[in-house]
Amino acid sequence: MPHDEEIPVLIVGGGLTGLSAAVFLAWQGVPSLLIERHAATSLHPKARAINPRSTELLRSVGMEEEVLKNRSAIADNTDLVHVETLAGQERARMPRSTQEDISSLSPCGWSLIDQNRLEPLLRDRAERSGCMVRFDNELISLSQDENGVTAQIREGESGQRRSVRAQYMIAADGSRSQVRELLGVTRQGPGTLSHLVSFFFKADLRPALRGRKMIACYVNNPNVVGTFMSLDGDMRWVFNVSYHPEKGEKAEEFTPERCARLVRLGVGVEELPVEIESTRLLPWEIAAWCVDKLRVGRVFLAGDAAHVMPPTGAFGASTGIQDAHNLAWKLALALRGADPSILDSYEAERGPVASLMVEQSMLRFDVREGRALADVTAKMLDELTMAFGYRYQDGSLVLSGESGPVEDPRSPSALPGSRAPHLPLQMNGQAISTLDLFSRSFVLLAGPHGQSWADAARAVAAETGLALDAYRVGPGGDLADPENRWCDRYGVTESGAVLVRPDGFIAWRAEEGAQAPRGVLDQVMRQLLKSSTQGHLARTN
Ligand SMILES: Cc1cc2nc3c(=O)[nH]c(=O)nc-3n(C[C@H](O)[C@H](O)[C@H](O)COP(=O)(O)OP(=O)(O)OC[C@H]3O[C@@H](n4cnc5c(N)ncnc54)[C@H](O)[C@@H]3O)c2cc1C
Known about the structure:
eight-stranded mixed beta sheet; 15 helices; binds flavin-adenine dinucleotide
């Protein structure tokens, strides 16, 4: 049967994950169609912090500056505070690590941007890069065969149905993913942990704040359990309040009067003037689970469709953005003619990361809920390790050396499977980070005596069409190493080399030179791309 439309990649869901996927695919030159059930991007700020690793990915597609310009009004606030009431005594204060802590590890920091500001930026960028973005369009059914996926889509206003045929589909349709249900993918984990309503209000909380600059304030007293988050610093707020459907409570019962009363109980000021913006009431759940598989045939689950975690730790949105990036460069390769089995590495790499993120946000949730047993806090990984230290132990890699699932990014191993460390370098006299080299292509970095590696890489690129850049680092090389630390930081001698993937993860490392570097690299590429480098990949950019 003919289809109304054909497209290499269909993305279902226009939240952070789907929109990021559209941007990253476009960056790789892959056309995509994104459909989103709602008429507009999120009105709610939801995720307010994108972690430094995801900021690195946004930087790699040239969006960091734009994101920084749209920082939230509370971007400079630092503390997460636990209180009985906002006006009362503090119970505990958890500082966020500062940009200073991060600057030796990355050119990027946390991006404190509200989700309802980031989504429009991504949408705009996706559209400008040629992605077809259609809001008010809903996926209603799908089928697939060995050549592609067929989706039935209903256009909201007209109710008109169309069929779209895609070579691959990214299901970024959120925690209630219909695609996941249609594919019968099961989930594992604790499930729903609590129910919340989220509402917006205006009130002058400056006296209760007493000059404190908070990211979030967790209130817990016999009358209300919830989280205050400021939208503008002091006058406009979101309150996320727990409620109990198991005791018969309903989200609709949160009338403006009740919401105002709850705000006063949370602030601890009985007569506080409060104005509720009741039209923006949002019921949601805190939950923790991961899917049992991230891929069914030609459909890939990403973001909240694949894993949901408590918002403690701010891992949810960032994990979705990283999923999208991991998929985009691999889909680009598969669509250009690499063996499609490279796509198996998506699940092998992102599945364990999703489990780690869920486990760690659960530990933080337990601390927040007052269940901070000694063994809970002992298992908690610090923020920088969570952002930069997770390692891929299986996937599109040529593994070597002993390594676990996480490492301390302050002393990076630079072993295959780990994030390539940041180091200041110079290119044509301009200061850059090593990370600025990793964007669309594979990159081979060789030590000052590693010219034969660089030559071999250039030959592979020329013969196969693979986007593969090569640089020699150090005296006389393509890149100056002003601190003379590159070899040491990347764990190679002056004649060694590393191969870094487009996502900035190390794929392979040779600590020193080899007799026949071209033969070695051919072998490495075969293993990474699961295909012969004799074949020629189509270039699309
Ligand atoms: C109140 C709240 C606070 C949060 N706070 C944080 C935080 O501080 N830090 C953090 O990291 N995370 C936080 N999160 C989680 C974060 O918002 C999510 O992890 C993130 O939004 C996931 O993005 P996503 O694109 O994967 O899914 P979603 O944002 O859920 O997007 C999925 C999209 O798919 C669309 N869709 C669904 N079905 C279909 C269909 N059949 N056809 C077409 N479109 C469809 C939906 O309309 C939706 O827009 C919070 C979430 C909430 C609700």
